[in-house]
């Protein structure tokens, strides 16, 4: 091996940010912003820096950089871990958010909203302080969210609600357009000739469940559809409760010809109840849900649903949170973002019986 090659490799092994600045003609501050994942850096600048780093063999020490800047670059994720492990909805939201944060040079730490820590706001605040969390993503907080959010707001510099609505008007949020989703389902069934449509609602403490229920009643009233109070039953967003709710509806002397469930798990349970009555979903009675869960596609028959762009929602939530942290200007549309779902019509819905 030549002396020139040895010298070159030795230089590469000890390349510094100063060398990188000389190679690119950029300031060390700009280069640092590239490596710390600042969202306010041009793509061309990032590509230029990364190409030069590869050429010089430069490797950024993230731990040292964070220590020097006095920042942790940690983002808290407030979510019920049991939901994160067992629900496609939460898993895909988290995947989108986590991927964006990782690409931007941040790490995420989970705060289990199902744990005892959430029974003591002071303990929770201390825990957030100890971990030096710079911001918080709150996944699907309950309807009584004021206390829930204040626990974080006292300690975290920035907070964003995802999969729900922030009702205090000060916290940004990202969620599905629940009214639009319900409008898609009711109109789909109405076009199939259904006038008598029942509804299996979700838990009243969940914001999305409340919004979907309110939207259903508003839309059916606008369409002047007939209604009986017994056509409304609680399904608690679960398979078992959805099955029992559908059983109560089907046992009525004048049952509806279609049922919308507030989520896909309840819809799956409703389909099981229909089969238990010796009927076939999509033939004698139609069933539909919301969320676009894999179980809806894999069911027999496959269940009509409204899908959510979950990973895209997670990515957008992370982007907005980082803008908050870096004190960048945001438009009102970014601060409160509603994503529209897409109707997926499947065999569980068919023409109304004659």
UniProtKB/TrEMBL annotation:
UniProt entry keywords in alphabetical sequence: DNA-binding, Transcription, Transcription regulation
One Pfam entry name: Peripla_BP_3
The keyword Transcription regulation appears for this protein: yes
UniProt GO molecular function: DNA-binding transcription factor activity; transcription cis-regulatory region binding
Coiled coil regions in record: none
Keyword Lipid metabolism annotated: no
Ranges for domain HTH lacI-type: 15-69
PROSITE patterns noted in UniProt: HTH_LACI_2 (PS50932)
Database matches in Gene3D superfamilies: 3.40.50.2300, lambda repressor-like DNA-binding domains (1.10.260.40)
Source organism, top-level taxon: Bacteria
Protein name: LacI family DNA-binding transcriptional regulator
């Amino acid at each position: 091996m030549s002396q020139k090659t040895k010298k070159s490799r030795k230089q590469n092994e000890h390349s510094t940010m100063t060398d990188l600045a000389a190679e690119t003609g950029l300031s060390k501050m700009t280069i640092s912003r590239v490596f710390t994942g600042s969202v306010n850096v041009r793509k061309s600048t990032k590509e230029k820096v990364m190409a030069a780093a590869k050429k010089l063999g430069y490797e950024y020490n993230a731990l040292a950089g964070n220590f020097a800047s006095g920042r942790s670059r940690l983002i808290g994720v407030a979510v019920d871990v049991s939901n994160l492990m067992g629900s496609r909805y939460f898993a895909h939201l988290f995947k989108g958010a986590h991927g964006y944060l990782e690409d931007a040079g941040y790490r995420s730490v989970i705060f289990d909203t199902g744990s005892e820590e959430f029974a003591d706001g002071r303990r929770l605040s201390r825990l957030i302080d100890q971990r030096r969390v710079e911001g918080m993503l709150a996944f699907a907080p309950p309807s009584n969210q004021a206390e829930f959010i204040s626990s974080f707001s006292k300690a975290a510099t920035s907070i964003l609600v995802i999969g729900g609505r922030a009702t205090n008007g000060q916290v940004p949020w990202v969620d599905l357009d629940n009214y639009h989703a319900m409008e898609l389902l009711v109109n789909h069934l109405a076009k199939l000739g259904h006038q008598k449509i029942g509804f299996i609602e979700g838990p009243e403490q969940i914001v999305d469940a409340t919004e979907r229920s309110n939207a259903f009643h508003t839309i059916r009233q606008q369409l002047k559809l007939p209604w009986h109070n017994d056509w409304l039953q609680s399904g608690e967003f679960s398979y078992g409760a959805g099955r029992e709710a559908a059983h109560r509806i089907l046992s009525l002397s004048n049952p509806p010809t279609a049922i919308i469930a507030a989520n896909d798990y309840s819809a799956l349970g409703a389909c099981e109840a229909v089969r238990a009555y010796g009927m076939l979903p999509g033939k004698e009675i139609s069933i539909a849900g919301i969320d676009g869960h894999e179980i809806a596609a894999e069911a027999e028959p496959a269940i009509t649903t409204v899908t959510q762009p979950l990973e895209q929602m997670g990515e957008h939530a992370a982007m907005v949170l980082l803008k908050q942290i870096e004190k960048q200007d945001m438009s009102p549309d970014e601060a409160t973002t509603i994503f529209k779902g897409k109707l997926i019509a499947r065999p569980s819905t068919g023409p109304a019986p004659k």
